[in-house]
């Protein structure tokens, strides 16, 4: 939080200054009010008119300074909130794939929307009030020390008592705010899942069941918000009660001073000052707890752990010149054994097809070989280097993925192929042609610079897959992972896509249930997963022998 506020030091200093302007305004108002009441004691029209004119001028000056103060504060708040949004988004984008997959994607959306809204609504409102009320307390207490030293010491003693009381509420305030954040995430995930499956729900007439479930999530969310609001309001009421008691004692003390002959103007001014001091403290102390809870939200959505940083950027650069060796590999997922003592190797440039029953561990094997999972027993070595010691950025620069569902940006075909990396247009065009996109591009007015609609809605399934292949071609990766890349395509398109994949220079590691006669046999090896073991077969032996599927 400190580095966020000091990111623009001069602007933050100006923000503090802007927050202090209302403190001066408040002192001027207190003084003019004391002078107005004191003018009654003086009893002359000339003095009263002079005081009224001074008061009008003070109010006009206060209004102008408030506008200036507000402009300075809003400008800083706007830029700082933008920095928070950037940091939160950057944390998600720079997380390792393994870390990213720990939570649902919808929880990240909740972080970017709900948590930032909580921070926006709470933090700066609390910060400005903290600075204003804290500044008022310090300035007023200083003035009171000059007016009446004993009286000021009494105010200070009251302040310490209030501080000890409010510390009791700190931990509960923070935990309740965190519960609101978690409930927001749960609600976002539940609603997203319901909407994704809404067609199935309607076709099977089970909307009411899921509506009931969603209503329970809503009730939980609103209950956590209610608990936080009631608790923080309770803090304010407790400190408010103590504040009223303090004002009563202050009033009794000042009435005693009045009987000693002190002027009404001084008494009123001291009362105004002490009243401002006490209520500033009453308001400012709960703000510490609420600011701390906001700071925890900020850290949650923006701070990367040191472990995650090291996964992404630290370690040895990936280099694949000979083979990847898997030795005595064992892996459990959610308490279930997936692999037990697996040993095989993958040679550079060869093509591997992973086969096995549903749930056997095909996708898990791909995730292990692409370093998404690293909590396995045994060894995965690339040219003798332990996979765990390789930094993730370097690995990702050398591998490509083709999935059944291809994600496309609302941008040009060229940018969807290059993924915003620097390539010459002729390189992109060559990759597109190699991926079989020539016919598509010839039909587009702007060719490779044609804009795609959201997630490529204006393309067929085969065209989307070919863009995915073009990405792999232009990246010229050492390894290409394919997970059911042709399962949603018709026979002709599937054959063409599979043929293109097998023609690449990359080492190909593919999962596929489809069998294209005359093409699928061109894989060099089949890795069949059976009962937690991986059996490696030459492709011709697998498809021509008794093991053919």
TrEMBL record:
<feature type="domain" description="ABC transporter">
    <location>
        <begin position="324"/>
        <end position="549"/>
    </location>
</feature>
<dbReference type="GO" id="GO:0034040">
    <property type="term" value="F:ATPase-coupled lipid transmembrane transporter activity"/>
</dbReference>
<feature type="transmembrane region" description="Helical">
    <location>
        <begin position="241"/>
        <end position="271"/>
    </location>
</feature>
<feature type="domain" description="ABC transmembrane type-1">
    <location>
        <begin position="12"/>
        <end position="293"/>
    </location>
</feature>
<keyword id="KW-0472">Membrane</keyword>
<feature type="transmembrane region" description="Helical">
    <location>
        <begin position="12"/>
        <end position="36"/>
    </location>
</feature>
<feature type="transmembrane region" description="Helical">
    <location>
        <begin position="48"/>
        <end position="68"/>
    </location>
</feature>
<dbReference type="GO" id="GO:0005524">
    <property type="term" value="F:ATP binding"/>
</dbReference>
<keyword id="KW-0547">Nucleotide-binding</keyword>
<dbReference type="InterPro" id="IPR039421">
    <property type="entry name" value="Type_1_exporter"/>
</dbReference>
<feature type="transmembrane region" description="Helical">
    <location>
        <begin position="123"/>
        <end position="145"/>
    </location>
</feature>
<keyword id="KW-0812">Transmembrane</keyword>
<feature type="transmembrane region" description="Helical">
    <location>
        <begin position="151"/>
        <end position="169"/>
    </location>
</feature>
<dbReference type="InterPro" id="IPR036640">
    <property type="entry name" value="ABC1_TM_sf"/>
</dbReference>
<dbReference type="Pfam" id="PF00005">
    <property type="entry name" value="ABC_tran"/>
</dbReference>
<dbReference type="InterPro" id="IPR011527">
    <property type="entry name" value="ABC1_TM_dom"/>
</dbReference>
<keyword id="KW-1133">Transmembrane helix</keyword>
<dbReference type="GO" id="GO:0016887">
    <property type="term" value="F:ATP hydrolysis activity"/>
</dbReference>
<dbReference type="InterPro" id="IPR017871">
    <property type="entry name" value="ABC_transporter-like_CS"/>
</dbReference>
<keyword id="KW-0067">ATP-binding</keyword>
<dbReference type="GO" id="GO:0140359">
    <property type="term" value="F:ABC-type transporter activity"/>
</dbReference>
<dbReference type="InterPro" id="IPR003439">
    <property type="entry name" value="ABC_transporter-like_ATP-bd"/>
</dbReference>
<dbReference type="GO" id="GO:0005886">
    <property type="term" value="C:plasma membrane"/>
</dbReference>
<protein>
    <submittedName>
        <fullName>ABC transporter ATP-binding protein</fullName>
    </submittedName>
</protein>
<dbReference type="InterPro" id="IPR003593">
    <property type="entry name" value="AAA+_ATPase"/>
</dbReference>
<dbReference type="Pfam" id="PF00664">
    <property type="entry name" value="ABC_membrane"/>
</dbReference>
<dbReference type="InterPro" id="IPR027417">
    <property type="entry name" value="P-loop_NTPase"/>
</dbReference>
